[in-house]
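A reminder before we start the practical. When you read a complex entry, don't treat the lines as separate problems. The point of joint prediction is that each chain is placed relative to the others, so the output describes one connected object in space. Small molecules and nucleic acid strands, if listed, are placed in the same frame. In the example below there are two entries. Take a minute to note the order of the lines before looking further.
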Amino acid sequence: MYPARLIQRPVIHELSKNFALVTNVRQASVTEEIGLVSLELDGEREEIKRAIAWLEELGIKVEPVEIQTIEG
Amino acid sequence: MSDRPFFSNLKCRECGRLYPKEAIHICEFDFGPLEAAYDYDAISASISRAAIESRPKSMWRYRELLPIDGAPTVGAQVGFTPLVKADRLAARLGVKELYVKNDTVNYPTLSFKDRVVYVALSRACELGFKVVACASTGNLANSVAANAAAAGLTSYVLIPSDLERSKVVNSLVYGTNVIGIEGPYDQVNRLCSEIAGKYGWGFVNVNLRPYYAEGSKSMGFEIVEQLGWKTPRHTVIPMASGSLLTKIHKAYTEFAKVGIIDAEPFSVHGAQAAGCSPISTALKKGTDIVKPVPNPQTIVKSLAIGTPADGYYAIRTMKETGGSAEDCTDEEVIEGIKLLAETEGIFSETAGGTTVACARKLIDSGKIPRDESIVLCITGHGLKTQEAIHEKCGAPRVIKPSLREFDALVAGELADLAKLETATV
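Here is the predicted structure of the whole assembly.
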């Protein structure tokens, strides 16, 4: 999920150009305040990890889709 | 008994696609969460109030509406906790008809988590898992450790490495493997999903999640039965992920669907702590986009989930039933704990204090009318979070072993006591 300041930046486009990954948007909801995107990343494990680190550096919160927090 | 299985499939909550009843939890098409689906026609033909009433007093009495195929292999005594008619608390809150669903005494680890773990581990056994696991900081870890021990399953509990020692002991005692992970809880979670995939273990809150979550419904079934087969007009429920709230709603709705009760209007309301209130904040703002809380700041650790998985569904449920959400400060949480303890003799953990405090606000603001029936869901025992109220309950008054000193100490209080006795007589 990404903050408002990044909504105009083509983050997914940049991601697929900078990393050897295939991207596929499965679900998305973008409002003035927040963008939520379910993004499938297909590629080498290490490349995926590098891509996630890059996204997080931009200020985007990345969660594996399999495990949203359901427990404290 | 019908030949058709009551629990038929897993089903995507977004697109409705059906999946087999395996250890999976995400729709392959839209990544929507999977949940248990039932053959309600078959259940309607088989279930009755009399049949339920004839069964032992545990949550297994609602077996047709729980997602396991055979009899449970884990925790057969879980559930059927008291529904207390809370007249003294009702008087203090200024309402006519109030009940407390008291899961502080749920068996065996004194929180409602035993309900969900019971179903998750029973299903894990049916699916052939030998190792079960979870990521947790508290109640869930205790419950998985205890119930796995009793069922003879190997268990792993993953926790943040800086968790307080006292919380860790409550899991270690059961002989579980406690693994501390360096880093914040988000990363513990991420590691869990990788482990679940690689080792093929049954993670109660990952790949067993559709089964796990259904266990919460039993709290709703019990409330209806204990009220004499009626839904309460209002139910106030603490929200962490928001799952419990959606499942209590599902329980009330399913009982009507299978003809156990007549469908009556009811509202579900959610309670959160102000230091981590992504769901109540979104509902109050009139949006269904839940904005994450990166650093929760509250004593209510068991509700401090910044990115609640069922937030969206909880908001939808509250809106659909005409319910509302509220949040309260840590001071109000402590007042709530004390109020419940002093009026009803029930010592709840911080989540219970949150429920009481938020209920009070909802009543005072008119969102819950004073003359309609209300149930408060109290989900865990206060002994689990004693540190939260240390030094907030006063201290004993110390005297020498002398009757004269005692006389002096209580002299001022005797007059009040006498008045009270006269009033009682």
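Discuss with your neighbour: Chain B has a mean pLDDT of 92. What might explain this?
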